[in-house]
Design goal:
Blueprint lengths: L2 E5 L3 E3 L9 E5 L6 E3 L3 E2 L3 E3 L3 E4 L1 E3 L4 E4 L3 E3 L3 E3 L6 E4 L3 E3 L2 E2 L6 E4 L4 E3 L3 E3 L7 E3 L5 E2 L5 E3 L8 E4 L10 E4 L10 E4 L5 E8 L9 E5 L4 E7 L2 E2 L2 E4 L2 E5 L5 E4 L2 E2 L4 E6 L1 E4 L4 E2 L4 E11 L11 E11 L7 E4 L3
Parallel strand pairs: 1-3, 2-4, 3-6, 4-8, 5-9, 6-10, 7-11, 9-12, 10-13, 11-14, 12-15, 13-16, 14-17, 15-18, 16-19, 17-20, 18-21, 20-22, 21-23, 22-24, 23-25, 24-26, 25-28, 26-29, 27-30, 29-32, 30-33, 31-34, 32-35, 33-35, 35-36, 36-37
Length: 326
């Protein structure tokens, strides 16, 4: 059975929705939202409302799981509050404002999400967006914007490997306001692959655009910005896989023990940019340039050159060096 709600006025669901047909909500969120007071929604849900208000409201401090695919046809805000959790386990499609409040969280699991337009995670809970399934993507050149202002760093967490499988475009920062240019991508769940990684502004003093991991995880990027402002923390590493031959210049100070890898393209470092704790340099194609002293200073540094070019403008010390395939 399919259910459709149109026109003004809201709808409140107080029990489980187990219908197999699609539930379509086309109301106006300024005059009435779809309020869900139940643990699970099994049927597919289509939301055609628009505006920055909540189109779908869930219970504060409770978990609501959508087992069917949820589709947003217009740009609306998703704003759980308190310690609420919204889990999209059956798939997600649309472009939205992700604004979890307080300590609430929005989780994409079970089936991957497809963001069909510009999507923003820009306010609310500091660690409020989590990807727990592989293969999430943005359509075409659309961007997923991650940024926050003085109210604290916003963090997107990837709790599984390849949550972004070379089909996701991530933009750090806001295109018109440099004051909200800080954010964290947490890749502790394992290696991740981005199609594009861009930066709207260079972060100013006191702000950072960071990639973080508690273990040895590498962020692989096909097409990063030519001026690369991200810092790497914990065990997070970076791999350049740009087959178009782009020259990418690192303009940041990283503290992680992660690996620095080049498979295609050219990676170099601007004056003042360093990665002093990097544990390994891996070059399998393209070119890695070390133009001056002080970029890599870890006494345990390992170097592995199986292809491409490692271009040294200075003497670079390493504990071990391997050249060629084993």
């Amino acid at each position: 059975t399919a259910i459709t709600k149109t026109g003004a006025g809201g709808v409140t669901i107080n029990g489980p929705i187990d219908a197999t047909g699609t539930f379509t909500y086309s109301g106006n969120p300024t005059t009435g939202a779809l309020t869900i007071n139940t643990d699970t929604v099994s049927c597919p849900l289509v939301v055609s409302a628009s505006g920055n208000d909540d189109a779908v409201v869930v219970r504060k401090d409770m978990k609501t799981t959508f087992l069917g695919k949820v589709t947003y046809n217009n740009n609306v805000a998703i704003q759980p509050s308190g310690s609420a959790v919204i889990e999209y386990a059956g798939g997600f499609q649309g472009y939205v404002l992700l604004r979890p409040k307080d300590t609430s969280k929005i989780v994409f699991s079970g089936q991957p999400a497809t963001f069909t337009g510009g999507t923003y995670y820009d306010s609310g809970s500091k660690e409020g967006v989590e990807f727990a399934v592989r293969g999430n993507k943005t359509n075409g050149d659309q961007l997923f914007y991650l940024y926050s202002g003085a109210n604290g760093l916003k963090t997107v967490k990837c709790t599984v490997p390849w949550a972004f499988d070379y089909a996701f475009n991530l933009s750090f920062g806001h295109n018109s306001d440099a004051s909200v240019n800080q954010a964290v991508l947490d890749i502790s769940g394992g290696d991740q692959g981005l199609r594009k990684m861009s930066f709207q502004h260079k972060p100013g003093n006191g702000y950072k655009l960071a990639v973080r991991s508690t273990g040895d995880s590498v962020l692989h990027v096909l097409d990063p910005a030519v001026n690369f402002y991200a810092t790497f923390e914990g065990g997070a590493g970076f791999a350049l896989t740009n087959t178009a031959g782009k020259v990418v210049t690192v303009d940041s100070v990283s503290t992680s023990t992660g690996r620095v890898c080049v498979a295609a393209g050219t990676l170099t470092f601007k004056e003042g940019a360093t990665w002093v704790n990097a544990s390994k340099l891996e070059v399998s194609g393209g070119k890695l340039c070390v133009p001056r002293k002080g970029i890599f200073t870890n006494k345990e540094l390992a170097v592995e050159l199986t292809g491409g070019v490692l271009e040294l403008g200075v003497v670079q010390r390493a504990k071990s060096v391997r050249i060629g395939e084993t």
